[in-house]
């Protein structure tokens, strides 16, 4: 009976592959990424339901006087399907990472990375992506360890790219926080920092807040100095000039 369960597992994996590739007519790269992501998630969900159903069934005796439960080695029965789903999860992670970078590049890192620096970052990412997406092996073969190695290299290169982009952005905008543009750039940094590690965001908040406090203090001092005898705009009568100054 355990061999029957293994055969069922193997058949489920094969049907998942047929479902994902449209019966061998497509690859994971030739289809719409959102649709492909849904297919992969469906297969992962199938494995989860398969596990849960097994647990439910093995707790139920089939005969009134049955003393032993319906039970097999779960690793023996489900191990291959679990490994297959681990592969699908890695592919989903890669899809998510590609989408994240594509979105950031389309928005030019919220305007924080421009010109040659942006082009270099895009080229670096495309090279890293090609290193894992242009291979001829079967990406759905869970026994293929080449993909695992390529996937790790892809993650390493994208992590290095994240660090490089983050450092460059930090250096280019190091002095913006003590300027009127600080608040505007703070919003951009917040969006980019969701995907790219930008350091010391709390420090940036403090610097912008300190600048705003200094500006308020400066304006207050100027107001107190000029309120009794404000400078009037040219050709303005006294009352209208004072109103203009107050505004």
From TrEMBL:
Which GO BP terms apply?
Answer: microtubule-based movement
List the molecular function annotations (GO) for this entry: dynein intermediate chain binding; dynein light intermediate chain binding
Q: Name one GO cellular component term.
A: axonemal dynein complex
What residues does the Dynein heavy chain tail domain cover? 2-247
Record's superkingdom? Eukaryota
Return the similarity comment: Belongs to the dynein heavy chain family.
Please identify the protein, giving its name as recorded: Dynein heavy chain tail domain-containing protein
């Amino acid at each position: 009976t355990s061999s029957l369960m293994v055969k069922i597992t193997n058949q489920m994996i094969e049907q998942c592959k047929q479902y994902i590739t449209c019966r061998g007519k497509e690859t994971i790269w030739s289809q719409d990424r959102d649709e492909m992501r849904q297919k992969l998630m469906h297969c992962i969900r199938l494995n989860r339901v398969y596990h849960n159903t097994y647990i439910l069934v093995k707790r139920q005796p089939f005969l009134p006087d049955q003393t032993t439960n319906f039970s097999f080695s779960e690793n023996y029965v489900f191990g291959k399907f679990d490994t297959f789903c681990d592969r699908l999860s890695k592919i989903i992670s890669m899809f998510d990472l590609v989408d994240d970078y594509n979105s950031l590049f389309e928005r030019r890192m919220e305007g924080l990375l421009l010109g040659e620096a942006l082009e270099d970052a895009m080229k670096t990412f495309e090279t890293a992506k090609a290193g894992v997406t242009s291979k001829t092996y079967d990406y759905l073969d869970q026994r293929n360890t080449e993909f695992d190695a390529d996937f790790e290299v892809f993650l390493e290169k994208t992590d290095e790219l994240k660090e490089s982009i983050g450092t460059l952005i930090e250096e280019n905008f190091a002095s913006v926080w003590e300027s009127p543009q600080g608040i505007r750039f703070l919003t951009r940094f917040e969006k980019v920092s969701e995907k790219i590690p930008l350091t010391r965001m709390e420090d940036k908040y403090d610097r912008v807040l300190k600048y705003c406090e200094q500006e308020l203090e400066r304006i207050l001092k100027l107001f107190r100095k000029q309120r009794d005898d404000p400078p009037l705009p040219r050709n303005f009568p006294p009352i209208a000039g004072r109103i203009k100054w107050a505004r």
